[in-house]
Amino acid sequence: MATTTTKINTNIRLDSKLRQEVDAIAKTMGLSFSTVVNLLLRKFILEKNIELSVSDDTMPYYNDSNSIEVNEPIEKVIDFLEKETKKE
User: Fold this and answer.
1) How far apart are CA 20 and CA 78, in angstroms?
2) pTM as predicted
């Protein structure tokens, strides 16, 4: 039996340049800003830790021709994190 999750809108204050940069990078990965935030928050809940690591070296991997290949594992991570956060 599938469970439904209630979605809410949350307002946060961001530097406009930061938002634009996140949107641009997320788009190259086939992700929305909302998905990026949800992934980070689910990881935070699961690990109860904030670990920051950024590398431009991995970015050439993401492009339009392989976005489906890239997004499939991301969807699996989202599913896993959703299940793990519901256990708590």
Assistant:
1) 23
2) 0.56
Condensed to tens digits (0 to 9), the pLDDT of residues 36-46 reads 999 989 988 98
CB atoms within 10 A of CB 27: 13
Instruction: Report d(CA 10, CA 42) in Å as an integer.
Output: 15
Residue 45: other Cβ atoms inside 10 A: 12
Q: Phi and psi dihedrals of 79, rounded to 5? A: -60, -45
Alpha-carbon distance of 35 to 75, in angstroms, equals 10
Task: Please give the structure tokens belonging to residue 40.
Answer: 């980070």
pLDDT tens sequence across 6-20: 889 999 998 898 899
Q: How far apart (Å, rounded) are the C-alpha atoms in residues 43 and 83?
A: 12
69 phi/psi in degrees, rounded to 5: -60, -40
